[in-house]
Amino acid sequence: MKNSWMAKSLVFTALSTLILSGCAAQSSGTGKLNVVTTFYPMYEFTKQVAGEHADVIALIPAGSEPHDWEPSAKDMKKVSDADVFVFNGIVEGWAEQALASAGNSKRVVVEASQGIALMEGLPEEEEEHKDEHKDEHKESADGKILDPHVWLSPALAQKEVEAIVAGLTQADPAHKEDYRRNADAFIAKLKALDESFRTGLNNVKQKDFVTQHAAFGYLAKEYGLTQVPIAGLSPEEEPSPAKMAEIIDFAKQNQVKTIFFETLVDPKVAQTISKEINAKTDVLNPLEGLTDDDKKQNLDYLAIMTKNLEALKKALNE
Ligand SMILES: [Zn+2]
Q: Which of 2, 3, 72, 166 is most buried by a 10 A CB count?
């Protein structure tokens, strides 16, 4: 009898300590961690890990394209008030400046792509755009432009989730085990997604696919495909007439039957090319933001990636 009472009392003490240390880290007024993320995949990955323990918001609203988004004064206030700030890195060229001016030494900052070996951008585009876009892109030591689109590889997405687990655990160690358990459940789904990409794209007839901007480099590399992008690492980079001619030529020679476009970017260039070579168009979604329509249909990262896989299988087996 006595032993069982002691055990209960120990459990109670342990729980109180957990609850108290949890509250100390939280400043949202709801007793939950206040987490600010940038664009959709960062929001989704963070929500999956945080579960019920955090209020998670995305700064960049549905329907907006993150490559050319800039924070308002209101957004800066949200960054300043956050317990944890989660960003991908590189896409959010404004983040470092925003964090520096937001102050607050207690905020935990998660750059989710940190620790992943980033690929360089495409050489031809470096020559064309290097000077105009110097400030927007992170460059490696030798001045090469780095590709930020790691979230589109289900394998690398798992590493981003791990970085988020570490950040949330640092800010709120009391819920460490829940963050680990939530992350493990989501990572299991990402592993299954990775497996279906691997088997689904293993025996496709065609390995080349034409995309609206160079967002699918990591995905292509992971599954042995070749991405042929119309625009560079940012979708707003308009292709030159020479670049258009080169892609049309490539598509003709390699019998490309589908030209992919995106949901958040004007598809006119993709449509022009598809008409020129008498190809179809279809959506390949770089998950840089949800549309209102995606939201209405309750589409999330896993659902959209599954649609991407189906679109690729269809295009590459024609
Ligand atoms: Zn992009």
A: 166
CA of 214 to the centre of ligand 1 (A): 7
CATH hierarchy code of domain 201-316: 3.40.50.1980
pTM of the predicted model, to two decimals?
Answer: 0.86
Instruction: Kindly give the distance from the C-alpha atom of residue 28 to the centroid of ligand 1, in angstroms, as a whole number.
Output: 31
User: Ligand 1: distance of its center to the CA of 265 in Å?
Assistant: 10
Burial-class residue 313 by CB neighbours within 10 Å (0-12, 13-18, 19+): middle
Give the pLDDT score at 235.
87
CATH 3.40.50.1980 location in the chain:
5-195, 201-316
- Mean pLDDT within 126-149: 60
Q: Give the CA angle between residues 58, 98, 79 to the nearest 5°.
A: 40
Q: What is the pLDDT of residues 9-38, one digit of tens each?
A: 444 444 433 333 344 445 556 789 999 999
CB 150 within 8 A of CB 118: yes
Say whether pLDDT at 131 is over 70. Answer: no
Distance 4 CA to ligand 1 centre (A): 58
What CATH topology corresponds to 5-195? Rossmann fold (3.40.50)
